[in-house]
Amino acid sequence: MMTRSEFVKACALFGIGLPFQGAMNACSEDSETPITAGDFDGSVLIVGAGAAGMATGYLLQQLGIDFQIVEADTTYGGRFRTNNEFTDFPIPLGAEWLHVSAEELPAIINDDQITVDTVLLPYSENDTSGYYSNGQLTIEAVGNAVNDDQDKKFIGSSWFDFFDTYIVPSIRNRMQFNTQIATIDYSGSKVIASDAEGQFYEADKIVVTVPLKLLQLGTVNFTPELPTNKQNAIADATVWSGIKIFLKFSEAFYPTFLYFDDSETNEGQRLYYDAAYGQNSADHILGLFSVGKQAEVYQQFSGDALRDYVLNELDEIFEGKASAVFQDILVQNWNDQAFAQAAYLADEAPSSISRRMAESVANKLYFAGCSYTQFADWSSVHTASRSARDAVRELVR
Predict the structure, then answer these.
(1) What is the pLDDT of residue 21?
(2) Pick the CATH number of 4-395 from 3.20.20.100, 3.30.300.20, 3.40.30.10, 3.50.50.60
């Protein structure tokens, strides 16, 4: 039974993916069978307005199928929200890179008449990679360890901006916010959902896209109970903690990437990286991405204590330079976000968990999201979007 990390390493072995960091790679078995309208002409309720929920609604809109999206938070975007105040380019607080070919963007749009203007930038062989171990920092050029399917940065935009430009306009009037679904009853001919305020929503079918951690916490009660195999998948899943930290400095003193002995382990990951890479900006922004046990180290702190901890860590590596040129800090602790409470399904989880989570129930209950995929990759926007395509293909049959 393959884990995501094993799958990613297999992709790299055959030259399909980015060699710098396993957490940011992806290849997939996703079928690109065209999505066509079937015999279904009923209504669909979509729970969640993250990548999977919006992609699902967008495809249903293209097919002329009636749908509504209900979202617990105050706006759409899920775990790829963006900050536009910290600096003069969008800072992705969640999902940041495109991990596969740029052809994934038009695949999400699913309309040959639309031209994608999103600017993406791959990394270069001239970029630098630092490794800090046993008190020693080694920096060298990335070199020829790059290829056409490597990770790409959004330049002057973000995943959120891509959805906001190409997906949201046609579905915005079908979204309802501040609506946390608490119960889903799929025992009858219709599916009946109720929210935390006691309001009811009826549809012929329902697509659940809420984060896996929330299902683990029992925030949604199902009637009848979910099948045993799906309950076991939820219970068995290791969902990693997640935090992103951005630091603004008056000058850049760091390599493009900075790795440690624990940058990728079975328990989690962490990586410092140049968050301003390729942007049309004079600001110097260093990002820290961390999930799993590694993230929990940083999540012990908040406010000034977290700032001091990170600066002390960098000062040790760069001989006090970080504190000397520090200007500002921005933190997104995903464990503190009420409607996420974690990052995503661990890379070391068996692929059977994601596959079982993706299985539909009783031809009425469907699942889509970055942890609900029928292929051996998960935990990214492109996998969430592909899971939406799979759910819609099955739903409209």
Answers:
(1) 39
(2) 3.50.50.60
296: tokens are 């929990």
Reduce the DSSP state of residue 234 to 3 states and report it.
Answer: helix
Enter the tokens of residue 347: 């890379």
Residue 310 pLDDT more than 60?
Answer: yes
Based on its alpha-carbon atoms, the radius of gyration of the chain, rounded to whole angstroms, reads 21
Parse the chain into domains and list their residue ranges. Answer: 4-395
Give the separation between CA 57 and CA 113, rounded to whole angstroms.
19
How many Cβ atoms from other residues are within 10 Å of residue 85's Cβ?
A: 7
309 burial (CB, 10 Å; 0-12 / 13-18 / 19+) is middle
Cis peptide before 224 (omega within 30 of 0): yes
**Closest by Cα among 125, 169, 159 to 383:** 159
How far apart, in whole angstroms, are the C-alpha atoms of residue 239 and residue 112?
37
Cβ-defined contacts of 318-327 (< 8 Å, 24+): 318/137, 318/253, 318/254, 321/253, 322/247, 322/249, 322/253, 325/249, 325/250, 325/251, 325/253, 326/247, 326/248, 326/249, 327/248, 327/249, 327/250
> By the 8 A CB rule, do 211 and 338 touch?
no
Q: Give me the residues paired with residue 191 across strands.
A: 203
In the predicted structure, residue 278 carries a pLDDT above the cut 50: yes
Between CA 128 and CA 139 the distance in angstroms is 7
pLDDT above 70 for 75? yes
pTM as predicted: 0.93
Nearest-5° Cα angle at 122, 117 to 126: 140
The residues facing 181 across adjacent strands are 195
